[in-house]
Amino acid sequence: MNNKRLLIFSTAALPALFLLIRVTASAQEAGAAAPLFDAHTIVDVSIQAPLKTLARKRPDEEYLDGTFSYSESDGSERSFDLKLRTRGRYRRQRSTCPFPPVRLNFPKKAVEGSLLDGQDKLKLVTHCHTRRDSYEQLVLREYLAYRILQTLTDKSFGARLLRITWVDTEGDEPFVRYGFVIEDDDDIGPRIGLQKLKSNGLSYSEVDPGQTNLINVFQFLIGNTDYSLVRGPAGDDCCHNSVPFKAAGPVFPIPYDFDFSGLVDAPYAEPNPQFRIRSVTTRVYRGRCFNNERLADTLALFEDKKAEIYGLVADLSGLDARNRKAVTDYLDDFYEIAADPKKIEKEMTRECT
User: Fold this and answer.
1) Pairing relation of β-strands 195-196 and 102-105?
2) Predicted pLDDT at 351
């Protein structure tokens, strides 16, 4: 009888046991970022591809052939075959960006032992307009948003800034622009000891309250309303501009895609119609009212990281004086609110949902 009970218990416990094993294995690897995202120095690279075809046809399934090369720290050049296509939705539209965002696809075995070790498919954020230098500044401002979140928590997407020489194999002159690659979804889980969760939608009771507060305050800092931690667009998986991760406990949403934020202030960015604002630079706090009691601790973290965040802006190579001042002024406005209890109440706790 006891043996039967033991057998029944063991069989019933198998799914939880397998989950524990996977989580434990992931936790053992936690903190180990891939070489590409283990540093923040700018990488000079060259991408050779049929750029006219890429911009004209904007393939979102079929890949085009290209070459990716860069120089190692010892000066030796590494070169790999590359496949690339366009990606995204809004920025992939020709009316928005003459030069679309790109997905890079590397041969995984070929890049072993290089800076790209472990990489397969990578999202590349590009300059949108080749003939307008101001759009390159937007790339740097969005890159700063990723780096600010990394400063606040390791539960964030890695980002690596590239200085790219684009070589059109169809004849146009080469040009150089900044871009950055974003850590793949599948690499975050092992790094932080969590697993990506596929879901049609979540309730806030499932989401870690500390992470909820941190993300909502971060989005308020950068002036972004184009996201949801619990819902996706109609017909899509959860969540809008956020990827949920979990282990045996609560869900940890990790946001991405910040080009509609006030910190970036892209010319094509439109205010979220859900809110009565005329500009994306107008901040709207989307925190949850039941989390207001945690807000003081969350803001204390932002205060603790203040010098480091401002240091990111001051030290970012390529950001021109005008944009550096604009970003600094925008951060100043946030920290002015965060330092004043009356403004916190007016702009944040009273505006919770």
Assistant:
1) unpaired
2) 95
At position 353, the amino acid (one-letter code) is T
> Tokens at residue 16, please?
């939880």
What is the DSSP secondary structure assignment for residue 122, as one 8-state letter? E
Among the listed residues 122, 181, 114, 104, the one whose alpha carbon sits nearest the alpha carbon of residue 146: 181
Is residue 143 within 8 A of residue 161, CB to CB? The reply is yes
Ranges under pLDDT 70 in the chain: 1-32
Q: How much of the chain is helix, strand and coil, in % rounded to 5?
A: 40, 20, 45
Calculate what percentage of the chain has a pLDDT beyond 90: 82
Query: Per the structure block, which two tokens stand in for 215?
Result: 């993300």
Task: Output the pLDDT for position 15.
Answer: 43
Give the DSSP letter string of 233-261.
Answer: STTS-S-TTEEEEESSS-EEEEE---TTS
Give the E-state strand segments of the chain in sequence order: 43-49, 64-71, 77-86, 102-105, 121-125, 159-168, 175-182, 195-196, 242-246, 251-255
The answer to whether 159 touches 146, Cβ cutoff 8 Å, is yes
Tell me the one-letter amino acid at 248: A
**CA 106, CA 61: separation in Å to the nearest integer?**
15
Q: What is the pLDDT of residue 104?
A: 98
Alpha-carbon Rg for the chain, nearest whole angstrom, is 22
Alpha carbons 77 and 88: distance in angstroms, whole number: 31
Q: How confident is the model at residue 294, as a pLDDT?
A: 96
Residue 27, C-beta contacts closer than 8 angstroms, at least 6 positions apart: 193
pLDDT given for residue 31 in this prediction: 57
CB distance 145 to 259 below 8 Å: no
